[in-house]
């Protein structure tokens, strides 16, 4: 005649929902507001799942709209993860009223989330799916399958988050399932496991659940003496965190303990407390059940009038028109009350009704199990049919794939053959190009070698001629001048002859100067003795003194620089040729010569203010001067840039690498 511990758990959860309705509504309204403004799809879907899960009892329509919104987002984004969350919420909505429908949706969610083994949220959702699948089978009295799913949920949580609070729910559900089928030792084992898990952390809520579960299982297994202390600890923690659910629950289990140990007056004391608790929290089902429990205690104490009064109070709250365990308890208590009052006809009538109620409950349970198994069978058959169709489609797909593979291989072979032919032709063309390039390089090298030989031969010849003129012819002319000057003092000449003689000596002086100038141009002595900078400076000074052109010479980093003689001579000749061209063709009044050295780079710039020319004419020019300049620059592997516009002078810039 007593309420079982496991049935009381359901009632306590309902009380908790009623007692916290206001706080829940405020929280739910805040989520609704955030959903309206949220732009991030992931965060929005997360909140839609959370809200849909919370309101599935109070507002199923809103919960269903949330599911449809998630499915819409999943379809628009092509996000399979969102699709899995849609299945999860849909299954949770079905959980209370259409549990078989929830099974298929949970399994679809698991199938999707299994593709994300490294995603914490996916793995935790799989664990939640297993917990709820356990609840579905538990509610249909398929306890073996329920435990199977709970254990799979435990495995999922231990892999991804061994400290997750849902583990306490799993252990509690397993212990309740075993207790329902009177496997008390297994129930005690898992509730103790849940308590040990909670003790490893610092979460008071988990500790509270652990102490309550373990103490309740001990009480239900008729080991209440050791269980009461755990229930007291659970109530103390519940009071600290203001959890009315477990404050009530702990006292309810203690009342059961006192009833089972035949301490009926102590049990009445606790059931009276619980009755007042339910009144204060406006929970009629709890009030009705506590009236029944008070009546049971009073019947045991031979207080039939008080028991009848409490039974009538219970009937005013509960609808006893339906057959259920509460109605069975109600009739059992009234049968005992009428027996004690000596009204045996009424007692037997109520006793007979108890048998009818038991048979009805038994049949209802069997029908429920049969319907569940039939629905489960239909669902599995449907899934098998779908799988068979999918297998047939897969076979067809594989056949098509095989044919496609052969076609792809043939096409691929043809493409590969074509690629090989193209690569071979390209390789031939490249080799041919490289061969031609090598020939061009050899020709260039040959041309440069020839140019080098010509330039060196030219400079050697210039040097030899300059030396011969200076040392040979110059010496002879100087000797002749000296002899003539000596003869002048010993000869007697007429004034006419003297004048002719002196004119001849002057012409001889001019010839000596011209010979020296030619020799100097052919090989400047300063270039050999003092280097490029001094030679160019002397060259520009000589031009300035001649009055042919006003030249400004500038040098940077060249003074004192050790340059190869061939390089210095070549640069000197280039500048000499450019200035000669300016004097001959430009009609310029002034020019600038700049030479600079920076590291291994030498820059030469020659500019004038002459009449300029069209630079396109250089390509067709056959002049020896430009040809010599270009040959020398190519020989030194340098570059030349000529900038000129008719009427605006000429600028020649040369870059050389030492």
Report on this structure.
The chain has helices at 5-19, 21-37, 41-54, 60-77, 80-94, 99-113, 120-139, 143-160, 166-180, 184-199, 204-220, 224-240, 244-260, 264-280, 284-300, 304-317, 325-340, 344-490, 495-522, 525-530, 532-546, 565-586, 617-620, 624-635, and strands at residues 550-556, 590-598, 601-608, 639-644, 650-657. The chain has 658 residues and is mostly helical. Among the domains are: 277-347; 399-523; 528-657, Histidine kinase-like ATPase, C-terminal domain (Heat Shock Protein 90). A five-stranded mixed β-sheet has the order 1-2-3-5-4, covered by helices on one side. Helix 4 (60-77) packs antiparallel against helix 5, helix 7 runs parallel beside helix 9 (166-180) and helix 11 (204-220) packs parallel to helix 13 (244-260). The radius of gyration is 57 Å and the shape is rod-shaped. The protein starts with a helix and ends with a strand.
